[in-house]
Amino acid sequence: MAGATPVASDNITVELLPVELMDVSVGKAEARVYYGLSSYCRTSPVDRTIKSPIMVLEEKGPFLLSVTRNVLVGVGAWRVEVMFVSDLAMTDNMSDTFILYCLSDINGHVQYATNGSCGGRGCCEAVMPPDTVPQTRFAPLVNPQEDPDYRKEINPCSYAMLVEKSWYNFSTTDLSGYEGMSNKFSRGVPLVIDFAIRTGTCPAAGQQPPKGYACLSRNSYCGNATSGEGYICKCAEHYDGNPYVPNGCQDIDECKLHEKYNCSNGGTCKNRLNGYDCPCGPGMTNKGGKCSEIFPTVAKAVVGAVAGLLVLALVSFIIILRKERRKTKEFYRKNGGPTLEKAKMIKIYKKEDLKHILMSSNVIGKGGFGEVFKGFVDKVEVAVKKPITGNLLESEQFANEVIIQSQVIHRNIVRLLGCCLEVDTPMLVYEFISKGSMDDILHGEGNKEPLNLDVRLRIAAESAHGLAYMHSQAHIKILHGDVKPANILLDENFAPKISDFGISRLIARDKEHAATVIGDRTYMDPVYLQTGLLTEKSDVYSFGVLILELISRKRATYSDNNSLVSSFLDAHKKGEKATKLFDKDIASKENLEVLDNLTEIAVECLNLDVDQRPSMTEVAERLLILNRSRKL
C-alpha cells in the first residue's frame, strides 16, 4: 500500500509513501491504517494550498477499501463540496471514476454548527452504497466556495477525509486555524481496508484443498471474501486465533464468555474441547432442559431444622459479639482512651492488631509485671508487655503516665510505641531490643559472651546518660525507681537502652512520696527503704550497684547483706585496691586505672549520705570523660 500527496495550487507533486498500520483483525478480515486528510487552505487573497492524499492499493492484491466500514466526511466554515473519487489520475475518462458527494453549507455562520453533528452545517457525511465496487485507488477531494472577504485568521481551511464509520466526532473548533485538523490528526485518521486471498476460491465440500490453500489451521474453514473476489479463512466455532498458520485456531474457554455462551438450563458451565457443557449441580437433575431439585421432602425438613439451629447459633454469636464489643468499648473508656486520643506521639492499637503476637510461642520474658511477647506489627519488630490484671494505675493516671512515657525520646531509653486499651488491663507496645538485658549478658547460663572493658565502659556511660536525661532534661522529671541490670537492654551493637517503666513512677516535683516501696531490694537505696521517699539520688545508688556488677561480673544479692557491695566498700574504707574483685577478663595491667576510677564513682554513688552522692548528670559526665580517654 502507498499514498500519493498533491501539494500547492500551481503544480502537483506525487510521492509514493508507505502507509502506517494501526491494527489487524484476522477474525473480521480487515486492517486499519492511518490515512491523511485532504485540505484546501487560503494563504492569501490569491494563493491556495491544496493537499489530497491518494491511496494506491496493489492491483489484484489482497487489499480493498471497505465499502461498509468507511464514510466520507467534509468539514468547512463556508459552502464546501467534498467528493470521494476512485481511479483518480489513472484514466482520462471521468465516467470511469466513482464519485461520492456531500455538502457542508453554513456560509461563514459558524454559530449554526453543532458539536457531534455531521448534518451539513460545518460538517457533512456520506455513506457508500452497499453495491459499490471495492476500490484500490481513491482519494477524498475538497471543492470549497471561498470567503470573498479573505481573513487568514478566521476559518481559512476546508477538509475532506475517508474515515472509519462513527470514529470522527465533529467539534466546532475543527473549523478554526490554519491546517488545524491536519495538525490535530497529524498521523492521519483510521481507514478500514478489507483483505482476502484473491487467487482461488473455497474448495467444494468433500474436495481436497488446492495447492497454495491458505486456511492452514486444522480448526478453520473457508468463506467468501467480504468484498471483491477470493476467499477468507476463519476459525471454527468454539475456536479463536489465526487460521492462516498451522495450529493457529485454539480452543476457547466458553465459560469466560458469559454473554455469548450461557447455561440456559441453570447448570454450571464446564469447558471442554470444541465446546462446553452445563451439568446440573448437586441435588439437581436435568428435566426438560431445566435443572430441577431432586431433594426429598424429609431431607428438606431435616435441613430446615439444622438451618434453624444454625440461625439460632448465629443469633447467639451475634449477641455475644455485641456484648464483647460493648465490653471492649467500656475497657477503652476505663483505660483512658478518650484522653490518649489527644496524644499525638502515641499509637492506640486494636486488640486484633496484637492477637497474632500474644501466643505462648512468642513469650520472651515473665516477671512480676506480667508477660512479654515478641512479634511484628506493621512490619516493625516490637515487644508487647501484657501486665497481670489489676497491676496498673487507674484510668486517668495510667493515661497520663503513657503520655509522659511517649514523650521520652532518647537513644538510650526504650521507646514506647503505643498501647492497647481494649482489654481489662492495658497492654504496652515497645520497640524490640534484640540482644536482651545486661543481666542476661553478664550472668546468663551457658557460655557467657565476652565483654571487653571498652564495651562495659560504653554501657555504663550511655546508661548514665539516659538516666540523667530522665532526671533533668525530660518534660517532667522521671524517676526510674528500679535501676538494675535486668532493666538495661542491649541492642545488637551493645548500645544500652533503659527499660521497664511498668513499675516505674513518673512523678512531677513535690509529689515524690511513693505509696508503697517498689523495685528490687538488691539494688534499692537503703534511705528509700527506711523513708519511702524516692528521689533521683535513689536511682544514683542503684546505678552504683550496677557499675560494680559490670566490672566484677558478679551478681549482687540482697539475701547475704549484699556481699558484693560490702566487699568493694570495705576495700575502699581500708584504702586498698579492689583488684581481686574485678572480672579477670578485664583486670589487665593497662585497664586497672580505669577500673579504679569506675570503682571510685560507684563508691560515691553508694554513699549513705544522700547529699554526698553525685547527681546522675555528674556521673554521666565523668563516665563520658573516661570513655573518651580510652579512645585517645
TrEMBL record:
<protein>
    <submittedName>
        <fullName>Uncharacterized protein</fullName>
    </submittedName>
</protein>
<keyword id="KW-0472">Membrane</keyword>
<dbReference type="GO" id="GO:0004674">
    <property type="term" value="F:protein serine/threonine kinase activity"/>
</dbReference>
<dbReference type="InterPro" id="IPR009030">
    <property type="entry name" value="Growth_fac_rcpt_cys_sf"/>
</dbReference>
<dbReference type="InterPro" id="IPR001245">
    <property type="entry name" value="Ser-Thr/Tyr_kinase_cat_dom"/>
</dbReference>
<keyword id="KW-0067">ATP-binding</keyword>
<feature type="transmembrane region" description="Helical">
    <location>
        <begin position="301"/>
        <end position="321"/>
    </location>
</feature>
<feature type="domain" description="EGF-like">
    <location>
        <begin position="251"/>
        <end position="292"/>
    </location>
</feature>
<dbReference type="InterPro" id="IPR017441">
    <property type="entry name" value="Protein_kinase_ATP_BS"/>
</dbReference>
<keyword id="KW-0418">Kinase</keyword>
<dbReference type="InterPro" id="IPR008271">
    <property type="entry name" value="Ser/Thr_kinase_AS"/>
</dbReference>
<dbReference type="InterPro" id="IPR001881">
    <property type="entry name" value="EGF-like_Ca-bd_dom"/>
</dbReference>
<dbReference type="GO" id="GO:0005524">
    <property type="term" value="F:ATP binding"/>
</dbReference>
<keyword id="KW-0245">EGF-like domain</keyword>
<dbReference type="InterPro" id="IPR011009">
    <property type="entry name" value="Kinase-like_dom_sf"/>
</dbReference>
<dbReference type="InterPro" id="IPR000152">
    <property type="entry name" value="EGF-type_Asp/Asn_hydroxyl_site"/>
</dbReference>
<dbReference type="GO" id="GO:0005886">
    <property type="term" value="C:plasma membrane"/>
</dbReference>
<keyword id="KW-0677">Repeat</keyword>
<dbReference type="GO" id="GO:0005509">
    <property type="term" value="F:calcium ion binding"/>
</dbReference>
<feature type="binding site">
    <location>
        <position position="386"/>
    </location>
    <ligand>
        <name>ATP</name>
    </ligand>
</feature>
<dbReference type="InterPro" id="IPR018097">
    <property type="entry name" value="EGF_Ca-bd_CS"/>
</dbReference>
<keyword id="KW-0808">Transferase</keyword>
<keyword id="KW-0547">Nucleotide-binding</keyword>
<keyword id="KW-0812">Transmembrane</keyword>
<keyword id="KW-1015">Disulfide bond</keyword>
<keyword id="KW-0723">Serine/threonine-protein kinase</keyword>
<dbReference type="GO" id="GO:0007166">
    <property type="term" value="P:cell surface receptor signaling pathway"/>
</dbReference>
<dbReference type="InterPro" id="IPR045274">
    <property type="entry name" value="WAK-like"/>
</dbReference>
<dbReference type="Pfam" id="PF07714">
    <property type="entry name" value="PK_Tyr_Ser-Thr"/>
</dbReference>
<keyword id="KW-1133">Transmembrane helix</keyword>
<dbReference type="InterPro" id="IPR000742">
    <property type="entry name" value="EGF"/>
</dbReference>
<feature type="domain" description="Protein kinase">
    <location>
        <begin position="358"/>
        <end position="625"/>
    </location>
</feature>
<dbReference type="InterPro" id="IPR000719">
    <property type="entry name" value="Prot_kinase_dom"/>
</dbReference>
